[in-house]
Amino acid sequence: MQTRIAITHAQSLCGDPKACASKPLRLPQALSVTVVIQFIYRMQEARMSTNPDSENLQPVLSRIADALDRISPPPPHPTDLSQADAFVWSSSQSVLIPVKRVNRVDIALLKGVDRARDLLFENTLRFARGFSANNALLWGARGMGKSSLVKASHAAINADAKSHGIEPGSLKLIEIHREDIDSLPVLLARLRDRGERFLIFCDDLSFDGDDTSYKSLKAALEGGLEGRPENVLFYATSNRRHLLPRDMMENERSTAINPSEAVEEKVSLSDRFGLWLGFHKCSQDEYLAMVDGYAAHYGLKMDRDMMRHEALEWATTRGARSGRVAWQFIQDVAGRLEVRL
User: Are residues 178 and 266 in the same domain?
Assistant: First the structure.
């Protein structure tokens, strides 16, 4: 149907066949189908004006329209948000894909991040209850549970929704991939008038080189005409405190006419996050506490001293101590003990 509309549009642009044949095409790129059909129609009209016995191409245009309509994607259907508590945003299809089983751990198993855990949980709970809350940036050492904390906080609040005075299932978690940040305004427009509350989560958010998509994020979070919808909160994790690499900021400082203004423009993105939570490398005691917590939770029957010795050896071979390393060690132990996690 859209292709036939394009044909009609092309025909309306070509009143005078001879003039139309010489008229330059000045159509936006979005009307690519119209451009093609308009070109064919112009050629047909020009041929008919000079040679009335020329073959009529109207049937050809109709067949092209039918073929394009058959291969064109159907319009996206609105997502039933009651299907799940978590979704992934697909910018290519402009749809929210439900996630039936979220990859997450219980919030009680997150060790060594007590202060960050309490702050993020309270911020999320206030938002879920309809009160003001801040966008949050979780930055710092890799493998210390930044993304796990976001997912665990969401699950903990939903699991005990009634005691918090929240409608069960009203808090939704939506993951948006880093490469889809440009489509964030489209997603926000879809969520703006909904009755649910939405946590939009972007894992490992950072920007490099000539990437300018951070400007879209700045406007969407704060500073745009519409602003962030009151039923939406944005959480991001990153290894970088200002989301931009140091060499990128130093290059801006060295080449700009006003170095301080150039750097201010770059780091102003992180200022859109009212809550900054830092994650730092854990100590040996904290690492072993993580291992003990996982082992107790999953009922792994192994001598405690032996498990701790192997956990330290495992961390040494990895060159780091973190929650991720502790979890990988537990996966190895569970596999050897033939225990399903």
Answer: yes
Q: How many CB atoms lie within 10 A of CB 186?
A: 13
Q: Are residues 66 and 95 in the same domain?
A: no
pTM exceeds 0.85, yes or no: no
Residues 45 and 151 in one domain: no
SS3 123: helix
Are 326 and 246 in the same domain? no
331 shares a domain with 272: no
54: containing domain: 2-71
Contact yes or no for 293/269 (Cβ under 8 A): no
The answer to whether 136 and 277 have CB atoms below 8 angstroms apart is: yes
- The answer to whether 94 and 76 are in contact (CB under 8 A) is yes
Under-50 pLDDT residues of the chain: 13-31, 249, 258
pLDDT (tens digit per residue) in 130-176: 999 999 999 998 899 999 999 999 999 999 999 999 999 899 999 99
Burial of 276 (0-12, 13-18, 19+ CB in 10 A): middle
- Please tell me the predicted confidence (pLDDT) of residue 39: 62
Q: Are 136 and 12 contained in the same domain?
A: no
CA-to-CA distance for 98 and 80, rounded, in angstroms?
Answer: 9
Cβ(235)–Cβ(199) below 8 Å: yes
DSSP for 68-82, written as a single string: HHHHSPPPPPPP-GG
Place of tokens 């020009």: 46
Domain harbouring 235, CATH code: 3.40.50.300
d(CA 333, CA 312): 13
